[in-house]
Amino acid sequence: MKTDNEVEYETYKEIMSELMNPILVDGLDHDTLHRLYKSKLVYLENLRVKCFRAINGRVKSLFTQN
Fold this sequence. Notes:
Helix content is 65%, strand content 0%. The chain has two helices and no strands. The radius of gyration is 15 Å and the shape is elongated.
């Protein structure tokens, strides 16, 4: 059975593969496209903070070297 960290890391890998792709603009208005890219930025910032805390924390996780 996977731990919460393992599930979270699998979700992270899946989301990161999607984040690296551009958003398809077919049928999207400018405002919607702006909000989608802004949500990508918010997610990436939250991930950056989480990784920073994991790397600088004392607890080992899937975001740190073992």
